Sequence to fold (381 residues):
Amino acid sequence: MSSPIKTPGVITCKAAVAWGPGEPLVLEEVEVDPPNPMEIRVKVVCTSLCRSDVTQWESKAQPALFPRIFGHEASGIVESVGEGVNEFEVGDHVLTVFIGECKSCKHCLSGKSNICQTLGLERRGLMHSDNKTRFSIKGRPVYHYCAVSSFSEYTVVHSGCAVKISQTAPMDRICLLSCGVAAGLGAAWKVADISKGSTVVIFGLGTVGLSVAQGAKLRGASRIIGVDTNPQKYEKGKAFGVTEYINPDECNEPVQQVVKRMTDGGADFSFECVGDTGIVSTALQSCCDGWGLTVTLGVPKMRPEVSAHYALLLSGRTLKGSLFGGWKPKSDLPQLAEKYLREEIQLDDLVTHDLPFNNINEALNLMKEGKCLRCVIHLPQ
Ligand SMILES: [Zn+2]
Ligand SMILES: [Zn+2]
Fold:
């Protein structure tokens, strides 16, 4: 006689809940529903703080999605699986991802896109499958963030929004591949496809910008010019391949003029990693006529429109956008994790702080003040 299948129940655990824009997170007891069909419930081990968590937490955009649990860069262990899930078993180690891969929609079937039509970027604070939440506090629904919400001891994600990783990968470092580092490496390798000897200019030397630099260096770029108002970022950037530095605050002329002079008419590639649409046009003006390519990765806090003189495009430049570095998470992320385990890419030096879950607000403050690259938050185990 086979034993009856154990049905997972509701879990009560601690989560860091945002009650309003920019208000300190409060550690609350939350109820986490069991996973729906094709979903998994994950015990979060580590979650690193990404700039977009802070941007959305501070955002006063309407409708206001509060209370809400942020967090999307995370590693964890599968606690239970919903009906129909064959890909994961209880105990598997996973990375969560903010854009999923259903493997059956037009985009997942195309080699040209990672923008899954079914499990794309979720902006309504709900789960893709039923437009409901899996979190509640005394019956009151708590919104999700990017259908991940890793600032919680347990979370529910769609099985298409998680990637199985090796049990030997260190959870407190591999979580960085869940968003920022993968986005930067993918922009350099997959989106721009940087070739040996190229000149590269990177606007913004945070985790994403430094990961672009790392990708450019590994491709053999001859010059990697970093642009950032914080000179300390350059010091850090040298280890990731940044060869020259421009501080826009110390320039007597527009940055693009400086880049053009340094590179005989403009760089081969420019990357916008700040999240400022004004800098997108600066980046476009900083790359060369003919083949100059600008890749934009930053998520803007304000002014979503990009403006650029049409002549910049007529003279042969390309402006390309990318989300998650163009990687298809399930197909591509395991290879990046393997690269880290073989020490072919660095993650460790991007971690500037390790903090316990109770100190999560300290991480938000460090990010707000520009005093960290990645803060890894360790959940109690
Ligand atoms: Zn992110
Ligand atoms: Zn899809």
